Amino acid sequence: MNVNHDPGHPAHLPRLLLVDDEPRLLSSLYELLRDRDYHLVTATCGGEALEHLERMAFDLVLLDLRLPDIGGHQIMDIINARHYDCDVIVMSGETGIDAAIGALKRGAYDYLRKPYSREELLKTVENALQQRRLAADNGRIAERLETSEKMYRYLVDSSPDIIYTLDHEGRFTFVNDRAWQLLGFTREELIGKHYSFVVHDEDLDRARYVFNERRVDERASRNVELRLKCNTVHGAANGERTFTNTLMTISLNAVGMHLPEGATAKHRQREFFGTYGVARDITDRKRAEEMISYQAYHDILTDLPNRMLFKDRLSLAVIQAKRKRSELAVMFIDLDRFKLVNDTLGHVKGDELLQQAAQRLKGCLRRGDTLARQGGDEFTIVLPELRDHADAKALAEKFLDTLQKPFDLDGHVVHISASIGIAVYPNDGETIDELLRHADIAMYQVKALGKNGHSFYHASMLDMSHQKIALEQALRRALENGELEMYYQPQVDVATGRIIGAEGLMRWNHPQRGLLSAGEFLPFAEENGLMLPLSDWMLGALCGDLLAWNEAGGNALRMSLNLSPQYLDRGDFFEKMRSALTRFGISPAQIEVEITENICIRNPQYAIEQLNKLCQLGVSVAIDDFGTGYSSLAYLHRFPIHTIKIDQSFVKEIHDGNGHYPVILAIISIARGLGLHLVAEGVETEVQARYLQANGCITMQGYLYHRPMPLASFIGVLAAQNMSQGWVQAGVAPPLAIRA
């Protein structure tokens, strides 16, 4: 949907540009505003929004931060750089405070967190337009003021700000009508009164500094915030309002005054006459800032502190416990069976369950305890000034008891429980990260033992089983945070010494443990159902790297994807492959799917059908680690195989160039008999290389030739080789294998 400029729209109607890449949200926003007196224009991406801004003037831009091409913050930077005369209301689902602060720093009028209410949006839009109208009015008035002394009184009385003057003792000598509108005091009630009459008691010290300002240059006080009292008897809004006072001092030469006896002319100075000031009402802005700050530190669903605020409070509690040499406890709570309820009844009911559970947990807290939502169905609690472990144990049992009572979700009665891990400062950690991590480990110990319980952390929980759980959690975050990367180990034609392909090796740039090889985390992925998203990522990374290589002017390499049996069993791999090839513009002839022999015994006929579909698409197939699994020549003959890879476990057995290694010889013989390409993995010594070459295997990879390297380094190595030996003629090279 795109609403372009319509000449039929009256020119005086406010122009609003609605920018959101989600069609449903954009349509909903348009429908919400269409019946009002606005001229609406929509854009589904940043580029389209900038085109509209270039063509026509807008009063207001309703801007989503997450856009597919240009981020909302960048669009605001462009608006500021090009001096587009429009206000911006940011609408975002971002939960971090940085997004809101970034928007406000760039001059956003307001920041609405999705999902927002209809009334909140309409009020914010109207207030923004009203502010523009007031700003425009002030601009016009200022122009008239320059040419007409008569307009001065009009400007003062119609100003949206309170304009006042004080004498040298701080008594009001003039105040405009705005004081009545905002504070409820008439001019007569204020004239002659001391400024302390309207200043909030807690702000009097700051007021003395401001209202006694005597400087006349740029050093005079500017934008000092004060709270002023309201006269509620006369019906003024709210009991107090906040103002920014912009001050200038009026000073006049003494006229007709005699100096004190004995004074000389050189001591004569300008006599202080009084103070002139402008007080701008910033109450609504302060409330908006407080709301944004509150939302930045609180979970919007449960209204509990979020992870950021929880860490702040835990940090303070740790400092206090260290000072008092006392203990504190950190609890990590995960709701059992929440996913089942969420998947069965839907996310709306799931959100209701989280809200009710949060209220029950909150009702169990002691004074001074902090309950926060970490995200999903996970909650954390800090218990400061812990007397002993029994306090934490009693509270954990109280949590379990209250959660075991049935929940009523609009007629749906559901039952849940919780797994609670407890870590105690300082024995279980002296930093907030250690305490949270150990409480998390203790919680997973409860999960492993059947859920619905609590456990204190102890050092024995750091055994291998719990390291697997921690690694599984980190691996899920790695997919979200872009911590995975493909490395490439070149394959060498030993007859010519040229690199003719490579095997891709998945690496994990772990934030704490550094670079991890595939063998250190893929087994855990298999156990915890993460092979499907990992395989999706690997397919995209494969095509992206191949596209980068093609764009760099390299040869038409054929790259291979090591396919997990789980991924093949899912049934939609063929469609995902075809979609990825289309999206990246990759020829199917450049892709090779790599399988293990064990696929043959899972569901061989189904596997054959899936692989045949890939072959019809133009994708080739290889068998990886041949000889280590369920070797069946019958299945090997039936499968559409193009390549056999000799597993490095067999290559490592070669210690004598004159020895006899029947398994190696049998694999070479099978490949030769079936007319298949052959690659030896893990070649590390000259003895191994000479033996393999002497018996007919000439394509090798291993530390003897190259270690695995990132894509950029691999492209550099190939480029250097091609520059020294000339580019290989066009055609399909032996496979560049991508292995998980």
From TrEMBL:
<dbReference type="Pfam" id="PF00990">
    <property type="entry name" value="GGDEF"/>
</dbReference>
<feature type="domain" description="PAS">
    <location>
        <begin position="148"/>
        <end position="219"/>
    </location>
</feature>
<dbReference type="InterPro" id="IPR001789">
    <property type="entry name" value="Sig_transdc_resp-reg_receiver"/>
</dbReference>
<dbReference type="Pfam" id="PF00563">
    <property type="entry name" value="EAL"/>
</dbReference>
<dbReference type="InterPro" id="IPR035965">
    <property type="entry name" value="PAS-like_dom_sf"/>
</dbReference>
<feature type="domain" description="EAL">
    <location>
        <begin position="468"/>
        <end position="722"/>
    </location>
</feature>
<dbReference type="InterPro" id="IPR052155">
    <property type="entry name" value="Biofilm_reg_signaling"/>
</dbReference>
<dbReference type="InterPro" id="IPR000160">
    <property type="entry name" value="GGDEF_dom"/>
</dbReference>
<dbReference type="InterPro" id="IPR000014">
    <property type="entry name" value="PAS"/>
</dbReference>
<dbReference type="GO" id="GO:0003824">
    <property type="term" value="F:catalytic activity"/>
</dbReference>
<dbReference type="Pfam" id="PF00989">
    <property type="entry name" value="PAS"/>
</dbReference>
<dbReference type="InterPro" id="IPR029787">
    <property type="entry name" value="Nucleotide_cyclase"/>
</dbReference>
<dbReference type="InterPro" id="IPR001633">
    <property type="entry name" value="EAL_dom"/>
</dbReference>
<protein>
    <submittedName>
        <fullName>EAL domain-containing protein</fullName>
    </submittedName>
</protein>
<dbReference type="GO" id="GO:0006355">
    <property type="term" value="P:regulation of DNA-templated transcription"/>
</dbReference>
<keyword id="KW-0597">Phosphoprotein</keyword>
<dbReference type="Pfam" id="PF00072">
    <property type="entry name" value="Response_reg"/>
</dbReference>
<dbReference type="InterPro" id="IPR013767">
    <property type="entry name" value="PAS_fold"/>
</dbReference>
<feature type="modified residue" description="4-aspartylphosphate">
    <location>
        <position position="64"/>
    </location>
</feature>
<dbReference type="GO" id="GO:0000160">
    <property type="term" value="P:phosphorelay signal transduction system"/>
</dbReference>
<dbReference type="InterPro" id="IPR043128">
    <property type="entry name" value="Rev_trsase/Diguanyl_cyclase"/>
</dbReference>
<dbReference type="InterPro" id="IPR011006">
    <property type="entry name" value="CheY-like_superfamily"/>
</dbReference>
<feature type="domain" description="Response regulatory">
    <location>
        <begin position="15"/>
        <end position="129"/>
    </location>
</feature>
<dbReference type="InterPro" id="IPR035919">
    <property type="entry name" value="EAL_sf"/>
</dbReference>
<feature type="domain" description="GGDEF">
    <location>
        <begin position="326"/>
        <end position="459"/>
    </location>
</feature>
